[in-house]
Amino acid sequence: MDKFIRILRVALLLFIFTWVVIWYTGRVQKSDKKSRNLIERTVRRLAYMPELVILYFQETEEHFEKIIEPNNDLYEIGKLPDNSGVDESYYLLHYRYMGDKTGYVYLQNIKNGEIAYSWKIPLRKLMMDTKATRKELFNKYKNGQIAVDFSASSPKNVSALKISSPIMTKDSSLLFRAGHVYKIDKDSKLLWKSEKTSHHTLALDEQENIWACSVDIDSEFANQYGFRDDALLCLYPNGEEKHFFPLTEIFTKNDLFKRLIASNQSYPHNQTDPYHLNDILPVDSDGIYWKKGDVFFSLRHKSMIALYRPSTDSIVWQQKGPWLGQHDINIVNDSIISVFNNNACFSKVLDSSSNIACFNFANGQTSYFAEGLFDSYTEGLQTLTENTDLIIEETADSKYLVLDSQGNLKGKFYIPYYSDSLHAHYPCRARVYIKKDKQFIMQ
Q1: Rounded to whole angstroms, how far apart are CA atoms 167 and 178?
Q2: CA-based nearest residue to 298, from 330, 252, 268
Q3: Half-sphere exposure of 120 (CA within 13 A, CB side)
Q4: Distance between CA 43 and CA 38 in Å, rounded?
Q5: Which of 388, 392, 384 is closest to 406 using CA atoms?
Q6: d(CA 109, CA 86)
Q7: Which of 299, 225, 296 is closest to 267 using CA atoms?
Q8: What are the strands of the beta sheet with 390-394, ordered from one edge?
Q9: 363: burial class by Cβ within 10 Å (0-12, 13-18, 19+)?
Q10: Chain centre to alpha carbon of residue 226
């Protein structure tokens, strides 16, 4: 009898302890993450351990799902409340892996969830291309033909493919990036793929030419000195190559390579990737400080934005900082650009906040917007709509913020993972469109 009472007492204590832990964990989840102490941060991590273990032992080596924290102001795309203030005309062009080796790109209304268009992505074909490219690059690396093992970061299975930076063309075809640049028609039939590989983002110029971040794999200079030479790639609308501009050639011709690149390693832990080209923006109209046909580009590992003029093969402007580890560039007006400022220094975000940095060419001053609203050590997009709203993609955190022109939050949403609505799908550099007079206009 005494033994039974002791067991019952222990069981009761364990029951009470368990419920105290559950209650405390729930309180931690609802607290402001910036104010959490060491114990609270530890409890939060432990709460996610079972799910993290499951994710680790799943079949895929990479996962496009992210565990999200329950939050009253974070909603699934298409399920934003009426009082959110998010415009009914906003649509998001985004990729979702749907399980069973299938994936789709959807043009979906952010507020009410309507699917205006969808394309089935030929994942098996893309995986075959990925394997062939990985094998080719590894063989070149093994044989000493190239200095960097580009195959190391290649996805190993269908569910890990990144269908990134989608663009809907005028005929409802779809451009996207998945190792190469691909185009499929409105019925999801594959039309072409680029010969050269690409990474990060795509952009269209006024003539519908496609600009992409690429790599000069066969650069003799880069392979001699053991680094990756990023490049600007321009394709005609039919996928044929129009221009290819390796960055080392550009900076060398402009007498800037030794002074700005070779002499200053901003990220010394990654010597093989001195540039880390992560955004490219063709200029479609003349401004006071740029011309139609120019190209802005971003180098994360230099914290540098540059303006390149292909017609004269010249860097007409460049600046390092005050942005740090930045990404997406937008043109605000004829003399101001905005930059997704990750504000990342080595392995942390400075002052615990990323922001949007606005650089004024007229006076050389930089102002900041949306400070204290998001932390994004890596990746990220910013879209200024014609309604003057700003839509921020926190890519690494798999969520979106919609802000008005004063920086007030209108809504916050995420793309749910196909198998669990409490997990978010990796956004893959989605695009914002506005529906206007039955047409969809890319922002």
Answers
A1: 13
A2: 330
A3: 10
A4: 9
A5: 388
A6: 11
A7: 299
A8: 75-76, 409-414, 399-403, 390-394, 381-384
A9: exposed
A10: 27
Q: Which residue has the higher pLDDT, 340 or 348?
A: 340
CB-based contact 64:425 (threshold 8 Å)? yes
Instruction: With H, G, I as helix, E, B as strand and everything else as coil, classify residue 215.
Output: strand
CA distance linking residue 370 with residue 376, whole number of Å: 12
Q: How far is it, in rounded angstroms, from Cα 305 to Cα 297?
A: 6
DSSP state at residue 266? S
Model pLDDT for residues 129-166, shown as the tens digit of each residue: 999 999 999 999 988 899 888 877 788 889 889 999 99
CA distance 277 to 233: 12
- Six token digits for residue 166: 């989608």
Residue 52: band (very low, low, confident or very high) from pLDDT cuts 50, 70, 90: very low
Measuring CA to CA, which residue among 204, 184, 224, 198 is closest to residue 95? 184
Do 349 and 372 contact (CB within 8 A), yes or no? Answer: no
The rounded percent of the chain whose pLDDT value lies above 70 is 85
The pair of three-digit structure tokens given for residue 66, joined into one six-digit string: 């992210």
Query: 428 with 165: CB under 8 angstroms?
Result: yes
Q: What pLDDT was estimated at residue 334?
A: 94
Average pLDDT in the 32-36 region? 52
Structure tokens at 145: 């033909």
* Pure H helices in 149-302: 220-225, 247-253
* Better-predicted residue by pLDDT, 437 or 210: 210
Q: Over 50: is that where the pLDDT of 57 sits?
A: no
Query: What's the average model confidence in pLDDT over 271-285?
Result: 94
pLDDT of residue 422: 86
**180-184 sheet: strands from edge to edge:** 164-168, 174-178, 180-184, 190-197
Q: Which two tokens stand for residue 113?
A: 């969830």
